[in-house]
């Protein structure tokens, strides 16, 4: 079996960036989704270039930090301070469509162009972060087609059914993202016991949200303690031994696309 180990939110905060770098440096992480619009994005881009075995896709982030676009050009996306409206703020406005299509299209493309500016090439794949609507999904699809980008690993038909959600699968629990719930989650056991039954497949995907935890993250995300639990699992000597014992070959997302003959323009 060939395994892609992916994480989201790389570059969202310093804590997410540094936890992810540890999972790459000391563990088995080999694919990331990069955010281009946060204060640590430039540092994150420079650091990831030290690890050429890691494939880099992009998360279009429309709900945290400041936009790439001049806020005056995208008034439906930002608050009075020019900061992107959070998903919670958007739900208060409406449970339906809250994005102006032309505005979200502009910001989506500008985030992709910012990625190219930082890396020197276009992202390997494009997918959304946290909150989406028909207009944001349509805009992302248009930019994906314009630049001939592959779909993200979470959406690929050979991989999408293997995405773990180990920390929200407690029967009868309504509050799935509580701190205690996440602390109590044993990610390492999920891997060692092959609860996702990946060993039966030709290709597998671990889709995670690695990171450390700081005040910035606590104010920004409901995924908190689970991040360092995942860093622990991906750097665990027992997990590395599981990889060897089961003849699992680690491949990044680009290697996967090349193997299946996926044509893309990067």
What's the helix and strand layout?
Blueprint: E1 2-10, H1 14-25, E2 31-34, H2 41-48, E3 55-60, H3 87-93, H4 101-119, E4 126-128, H5 134-146, H6 179-184, H7 187-192, E5 203-208, H8 215-220, H9 225-234, H10 237-245, E6 249-250, H11 253-259
Parallel strand pairs: 1-2, 1-5, 1-6, 2-3, 3-4
Helix pairs in contact: 1-9, 4-5
Shape: globular
Number of continuous helical runs: 11
**Order of helix and strand elements from N to C terminus:** EHEHEHHEHHHEHHHEH
Span between termini: 27 Å
**Structural class by helix and strand composition:** alpha/beta
CATH class: Alpha Beta
According to CATH, the fold-level topology is TIM Barrel
Report the C-alpha radius of gyration, rounded. Answer: 18 Å
Number of domains: 1
Biggest sheet character: 6 strands, parallel
Instruction: Please tell me the overall pLDDT.
Output: 89
What is the number of E strands?
A: 6
- Helix percent reads 25-40%
The CATH superfamily name is Glycoside hydrolase/deacetylase
Architecture, according to CATH?
A: Alpha-Beta Barrel
| Poorly predicted segments | none
How large a portion of the residues is in β-strands, by DSSP E?
5-15%
